[in-house]
Amino acid sequence: MSILTESPAWRALAAHSASGQPLSLRELFAADPGRFAAFSVSAGPLLLDYSKNGVKRQTMELLFALARQADVERQRDTMFAGERINHTEDRAVLHVALRNRSTRPMKTDGRDVMPGVREVLARMRAFTEAVRSGAVTGHTGERITDVVNIGIGGSDLGPLMVAEALKWSADPARLRVHFVSNVDDAHLVETLRGLDPARTLFVVASKTFTTQETMTNAASARAWLVAGLGDERAVARHFAAVSTNVSATTIFGIPPGSVFEFWDWVGGRYSLWSAIGLSVALYVGMDRFEQLLAGAHGMDEHFRTAPLEHNMPVILALIGIWHVNFLGCTTHAVLPYDQYLHRLPAFLQQLDMESNGKRVDRDGRPVDYATGPVLWGEPGTNGQHAFFQLLHQGTQIVPADFIAAIEGRHALGDHHRLLLANCLAQTQALAFGKTEDEALAELRAQGMDSDAARRLAPYKAFPGNRPSSTILLDRLTPASLGALIALYEHKVFVQGAVWNIDSFDQWGVELGKQLAGRVAGALEGGSPLPGMDGSTAGLLGKITGTGRQQRQP
Ligand code: F6P
Q1: How far is the CA of 43 from the centre of ligand 1 (A)?
Q2: pLDDT per residue over 101-160, tens digit each?
Q3: H helix runs in 270-414, sequence order
Q4: DSSP letters along 139-165, please?
Q5: What angle do CA 22, 23, 25 make, to 5 degrees?
Q6: Is 513 among the catalytic positions?
Q7: Ligand 1: distance of its center to the CA of 345 in Å?
Q8: For ligand 1, is residue 207 a contact (CB within 6 Å)?
Q9: What is the pTM of this model?
Q10: Fewer CB atoms inside 10 Å of the end CB: C or N, the chain?
Q11: Does ligand 1 have an atom closer than 6 angstroms to the CB of 349?
């Protein structure tokens, strides 16, 4: 047994959950008319309603006790203080400095990082304004009309998600943005189809500038550009780079004026606030990018200063811990009722699963409790016509976050009212369901005869008690988006703090990378490597034709 599962706070929660508490959501709401007020919290432009989760006041008290026992506040302060909390990589975790809009210094290793952060932001502003205004042109003097961001993981998902979310504020007649991540050539080929090399700017975004997919795509993009413009020197005007590895960007041929630096204390999946956001800034303008930072800073201040009981990221994290560790839920759905947020689930998959998909604690010991759930989701209302059947009537309990903006970005007919109605209705149906008796009564009222109604009623019943939280944004703006993303970042932090895991390393992606290099060599050589397992060797043989040749008489 680990220290965590033997701890008083953990055991109290386990006993609380084993005692069959809490009651059904119908009973909880009936017993407490003030439940919405008691189980909701506001922070800046966001409201979190967590009343439709099966928690009582006592449950929350026990969860806050768990957070206190884990010293979450001290751990949080340690992150803000720039200490090397990513201990397996011996790095500080200071993405909050990238969006620090106060005059407070933020230090790591005794050095204030803010002058460097501000300098890069100023360079980003100058560069983006020059490209957007047409002051900087391509090699042949033509205006840049298309930006292609080449990156993967944190160097793609964050900027892509934000660019999609802020699409309404962009002017596609002036500048379009595209994202290429997959090493599958279809991604690059399809993106470049129809683009004019003379008007295209590539932003190669890679923290390490060694990632196989990004380097392969960047090399092919470069070849496309040089072939299109017939001049190797064009690379200097059509490529920018964002990286911590400035020497590698120089070797690629990108002039220092088009290289935007960030630092090893910025984790890949936390990097959209850094120059990794360059493509977003090019697309929507630097003012909006800085509003995004300001919104995130507002959430940072809330997280840093609000008492645990009123702290939105802490509460969201603890509700998740209740589901994962004490109710045995293994997945978590994120359901934005906002088409502009359609890439949010994909972004959160990396944020949450790469951060908290860990099996050993900070002392390297295997954990004996569940850590991060499988996170997934799609925008509503589309999901309702796909997987919501399982959410309502399946055998698994899938806690869900519903996210919606009170005010829509457009005023087209009845669309936004219907969108919000569906969002709220789904949380209602999940929470309160419909009993078999209610289903029966409904069928009878529709004129169905008793026998037929009795046969059909079990299928039409909804068990309810399916937990969900609802996050409302005043309106989708750069600032509210920044706050929303920061909310989830800090939620992930708090969960990792309680689970006593390193949320900032990602060793689990390394083995596949290593093996891919060896398999690529075997594919090139056309034969399996000595000692290769039978399945991989068989597949390799099928792909290269060696298996077929060997079978021929
Ligand atoms: O997949 C692992 C990972 O290291 C992510 O953490 C990171 O976001 C991604 O690869 C891309 O890395 P880079 O920005 O160095 O190309």
Answers
A1: 31
A2: 999 999 999 999 999 999 999 999 999 999 999 999 999 999 999 999 999 999 999 999
A3: 278-284, 286-305, 312-321, 344-348, 355-356, 388-393
A4: TTSPBP-EEEEE--GGGTHHHHHHHHH
A5: 105
A6: yes
A7: 18
A8: yes
A9: 0.97
A10: C
A11: no
H helix and E strand count, the chain: 26, 13
User: Would the CB of 154 count as within 6 Å of ligand 1?
Assistant: yes
User: Helical H runs in 361-414?
Assistant: 388-393
**Chain Cα centroid distance, residue 101:** 23
For 326-415, list the strands marked E by DSSP: 331-337, 374-376, 400-407
Q: What is the DSSP secondary structure assignment for residue 434, as one 8-state letter?
A: B
- pLDDT at res. 552: 47
CA 247 to chain centre: 30
**Positions in the chain short of pLDDT 50:** 551-553
Considering only CA atoms, which of 223, 206, 225 is closest in space to residue 138?
A: 225
Which is nearest to 300 in space by CA: 469, 110, 155, 99?
Answer: 99
Question: Is 438 a residue of the active site?
Answer: no
One-letter identity of residue 388: F
Give me the helices (H) in 178-325, please: 185-192, 212-229, 235-238, 246-252, 278-284, 286-305, 312-321
Catalytic residue among 213, 261, 290, 354: 354
529 pocket-lining for ligand 1 (C-beta < 6 Å)? no
Q: Which of 87, 310, 415, 513 is catalytic?
A: 513
Write down the residue that tokens 């669309």 correspond to: 415
d(C-alpha 39, C-alpha 47), whole Å: 11
298 pocket-lining for ligand 1 (C-beta < 6 Å): no
C-beta contacts of 435-442 below 8 A and 24+ residues apart: 435/461, 436/461
